[in-house]
Design goal:
Length: about 290
């Protein structure tokens, strides 16, 4: 554990990425020096968590906006009342009505890659976390480093994907999802297919990351469909190998944020719909055009 000049602490959680940031109260406005240290830690560790936070939606929005403008999610009907940029992620149903978006994170993905400028980061605040009988949490979020995965590719594969783009499509069929998300024609019209580099360069670190998932990508520039789908699956399976993963065990009060350029994620579905209760507030911060 190391401390900064402003007394924040940084505790590594995973083998090469993931860290807990301590001595920070997100219910208060942060000074510029402290925020700069947090931003530097985020660039280095890709996934960071602030434990034991007690924040309001205004606090979460204020902190997120230090990183950039907020995105409005395609499932904005589940937004918190009065906060279009805060999405309720929840499996809770009351009086026959879902309190939030229950299907988020059902497959390995990077958030909103189907947009022209995918979000720089996603931030979740844990309000309710389902528990096992022994008190251990359910619903871990699993992360995979697409940067580490790229570094581990053989040279021939790197040459194959260098300079190529993949097509990301909001309406792509989600493989292996028990309850596929139903999308409307309006959502499809707002999110037409978009092409992004397969090997994406991180705008801060300049490291490359594999930026495809078989569940949301439908083709590769310059390759026949069969060959493209085979390569997409090969790359997707490679990214999520166990050696590239960190599993986050949630606690109530966690504020967790991740770098959508550097990592992919999925929710471990070991909780029920209901009686288990899970409630998170999610915000996403706008990014840049991938290159």
């Amino acid at each position: 554990m190391s401390a900064s000049s402003t007394q924040i602490t940084i505790e590594p959680l995973g083998r090469t990425f993931g860290a807990a940031i301590g001595n920070v109260d997100l219910s208060r406005a942060l000074d510029d020096v402290t925020f700069a240290e947090i931003e530097a830690a985020f660039a280095k560790w890709s996934v960071i968590v602030f434990r034991d936070q007690k924040i309001t939606p205004d606090d979460q929005v204020r902190f997120a906006r230090r990183f950039g403008d907020l995105e409005i999610n395609a499932f904005e009907k589940h937004a918190l009342e009065g906060y279009s940029g805060v999405l309720k992620i929840s499996n809770i149903v009351e009086d026959g009505k879902p309190l939030g978006y229950a299907d988020a994170g059902s497959f390995w993905h990077t958030d909103m890659s189907y947009t022209k400028t995918p979000p720089r980061l996603t931030m979740l605040y844990a309000l309710e976390v389902p528990l096992n009988a022994d008190g251990t949490p359910k619903g871990d979020t699993w992360f995979a480093s697409a940067v580490d995965a790229y570094d581990a590719l053989d040279d021939a594969t790197k040459r194959t994907i260098d300079g190529r783009t993949a097509t990301h499509f909001f309406g792509a069929k989600k493989r292996g999802v028990k309850k596929p998300v139903q999308v409307t024609q309006e959502q499809l019209d707002k999110n037409p297919p978009v092409d992004h580099p397969i090997a994406r360069t991180h705008p801060v670190s300049d490291r490359k990351a594999i930026y495809v998932t078989a569940d949301e990508c439908t083709g590769i520039s310059g390759l026949p469909e069969t060959e493209a789908l085979r390569l997409l699956k090969q790359l997707s399976d490679h990214v999520v190998k166990p050696e590239f993963q960190y599993h986050h065990k949630w606690q109530v009060g966690d504020v967790l944020m991740w770098d959508n350029c550097a990592v992919q994620h999925v929710v471990h579905r070991d909780y029920d719909f209901p009686p288990d209760r899970r409630m998170m507030h999610r915000v996403t911060v706008n990014g840049s055009v991938p290159f």
